[in-house]
Each structure stands twice: as C-alpha cells, then as structure tokens.
Design brief:
Strand order of the largest sheet: 1-2
Keywords: Membrane, Protein transport, Translocation, Transmembrane, Transmembrane helix, Transport
Structural class: mainly alpha
Number of strands: 6
Oligomer: single chain
Radius of gyration: 33 Å
Protein name: Translocating chain-associated membrane protein
Organism: Capra hircus
Pfam families: TRAM_LAG1_CLN8 (PF03798)
Order of helices and strands: HHEEHHHHHHEEHEE
Subcellular location: Membrane
C-alpha cells in the first residue's frame, strides 16, 4: 500500500514492479478520478466512474423515487470499483493477514490457503451484512411473493444496483489477483472454478432481471462460505479445532436444500404463473419456458456439483481419519525392559573406589615375595 517502506527496488514497469506496486498503481488511478470531480470540465466523466448510471424518476404516493436500470455504462463503474477492490485487498493483506501469519509460522501451502480464507472472510462478512440489510429494507424476506411478482424487475433501487456492481467488481478483481498474489499453479484451477461460478450467477441474475431472487440466494451462499473460511482460519491457529468444520458440514447440506427449493419455487412455479410470458429483451422480459429451464438447470447443476465436491471431500477426510486410527492400533506396545538387578558391593564409594566399612580398600593386596 502507499507510503510503506520497501527493502528492494525493481526496474520501472517490470513484472516484479507491477506485482509489488499494483495497489499503489490502482490508488493513483482512483485518485485521478476523484480529482476529476473538482473541475467542471471533468466532473461529468468522473461521475460516470463513481455513481451508477441510467437513473429514472418514478412517481409514488409520497412523491418521486429514483430507480436504476442496467446498461453498457455499468462496465465503466465496475472498472472503477475493481481498482477499489484491489486497494482494499492490499490493505487487508498487509495490515491484517501478514501480521497474523508471521506469528503462526505456516508452511507455503498453508500460508496460501490462510491468505485466501482471510480475504474471503472479510468479503463474505461484509457482503452478508450488506445483503441482509438490503433484503430486509426492501421487504423481500417478509413478502416472498415479491421475488417473482411484477416481473420483470427492470428498475432497481440504488442500493440493489450498487450492491450488484460491487459484487461484480470484487469477483472480477479476483482474476488478476491470482497473478499479483503469485498463487501456486495447483491452486489456480480450483480458484478459477468458484470465481467463474460467482460471476456467471451474479451477472445472470443482474442481466435477466432476477435481482431479488439473486439477493436471497447470495445471502444463503455467503453465510455458508463465511462459516467455512472462518473454520479454516481457526484450524490454522489450532489444528485440533474441528467444531466449526462440523457446524459448517451440517449447514452446508441444509443451505443446498434451501437454495434449490427457493429457486424451483420462484422460477419453476412463481414465474410460470405470471401473466406476462414473452421474450422481449428491450423490455427486460425473459420469462419464457426455455429461459426458465436454462436458469433452473444452471442452478441445479451448480448445487449438485458443490454437493458432489462436499461429499467427496468428506469421504476423503473420513478415510484419512480411519487410516490414522488403524495405524495407531497396529503399532505394538514397546516391551518393557527387565529391571536389572544391580549387585551393590558392601561399603561405600569414594573417588570411584569402593571402600570398606572401616575405611580400608576392598581390593586384594598383592603379597610380596620374600
């Protein structure tokens, strides 16, 4: 991050220079956009990066409310918040995770997983709080019918659209972070899988105007992921701590069931009963049988894949556990050495020589020949 001390200097714009200074470069770009707000000539362009676009004033009983729809200009806003995410990533890494990892003395493999879980714990916790606040204030929990009623949900409140833009920015920033953090080649495919899954689901809910359903599903998913990464951090601190992993294992299966049930209820039954069923991209309406089947297939396939990975990892963990237990049972007990009976000579020892009771030596004296 900016203003930190460095022990090495790298050639300008070299690979190592970009890796070690990517957060500072992002900070300079963000600062340039913020400075643009100070001048009338560049203020309009700067607002394009910072604020969501495509606002529409809609009349209500209390007056007018401002709602937003999506468009191509959202890519510019997402780009700006990608740099914000890069800066926050570097702050969390340097001022929190690096200080903790130095005290734990982890290996390279565990150190990489510790950094990954530490970053995701911060992100998932903030996202769960933010998402829960949006869902409660918008009334999606108290009125589940609102998840599919009045579809398509083209016009979004500010906090809903801003939440989706920030989510897309975070998961897009995670792609270059694989290079900046020098993630091991063995870990890159696994991380790319869940990054792409999040991007596909979040972008799909945003573009198909299923933002309300997407918020509730993200709340369930992020809550489970927060518990998992918290359990992994606690395991790095204390390897005998398995309580949070057991709690996560119980919550994981229940969460898959809730997500599948809610998706089938909202998409399979709720949208199927909506009167407006036509394919009209200009009006944001994708409520056709083919679109509903594709969305349901994607959600069910993702949940089945996550459940299969979970079962596979649990079976592997159990096999390792029972193999360790059987190995401990096979180890024979060490035979006890027979106690050696030490015959002590009469008298006492003095300077390594046994003395008699009367102070004379116990050694036999040689007789001199006459």
């Amino acid at each position: 991050m900016a203003f930190r001390r460095r022990t090495k200097s790298y050639p300008l714009f070299s690979q190592e220079f970009v890796i070690h200074n990517h957060a500072d470069i992002g900070f300079c770009l963000v600062l340039c956009v913020l400075i643009g707000l100070m001048f009338e000539v560049t203020a309009k362009t700067a607002f394009l990066f910072i604020l969501p676009q495509y606002n529409v004033s809609m009349p209500t009983a209390d007056g007018e409310t401002v709602h937003y729809r999506y468009g191509p200009k959202d890519l510019v806003t997402v780009l700006f918040y990608i740099f914000i995410a890069v800066i926050l990533h570097a702050v969390v890494q340097e001022y929190i995770l690096d200080k903790i990892s130095k005290r734990l003395h982890l290996s390279k493999v565990k150190h990489s997983k510790f950094n990954e879980s530490g970053q995701l714990v911060v992100f998932h916790l903030s996202s769960v709080i933010w998402c829960f606040y949006v869902v409660v204030t918008e009334g999606y929990l108290t009125n589940p019918r609102s998840l599919w009623e009045d579809y398509p949900h083209v016009y979004l409140p500010f906090q809903v659209k801003f939440f989706y833009l920030c989510q897309l920015a975070y998961w897009l920033h995670a792609l270059p972070e694989l290079y900046f953090q020098k993630v091991r080649k063995e870990e890159i495919p696994r991380q790319l899988q869940y990054i792409c899954l999040y991007l596909v689901h979040i972008a799909g809910a945003y573009l198909l105007n299923l933002s309300r359903l997407g918020l509730v599903l993200l709340l369930l998913q992020y809550s489970t992921e927060f518990l998992f990464h918290t359990a992994r951090l606690c395991h790095f601190a204390d390897e005998n701590n398995e309580k949070l992993f057991n709690a996560w294992a119980a919550v994981f299966g229940v969460t898959r069931l809730f997500i599948l049930t809610l998706a089938v209820l909202a998409i399979g039954f709720g949208l199927a009963r909506v009167d407006n069923q036509a394919f009209d991209p200009e009006k944001g309406n994708f409520n056709t049988l083919l679109c509903r089947l594709c969305v349901l297939l994607l959600v069910c396939a993702a949940q089945a894949w996550l459940m299969w990975r979970f079962i596979h990892s649990q079976l592997r963990h159990w096999r390792e556990y029972w193999s360790e237990q059987s190995a401990k049972r096979r180890v024979p007990a060490a035979p006890r050495l027979a106690a050696r009976l030490i015959k002590r000579e009469s008298g006492y020892h003095e300077n390594g020589v046994v003395k008699a009771e009367n102070g004379a030596s116990t050694r036999t004296k040689k007789l001199k020949s006459p």
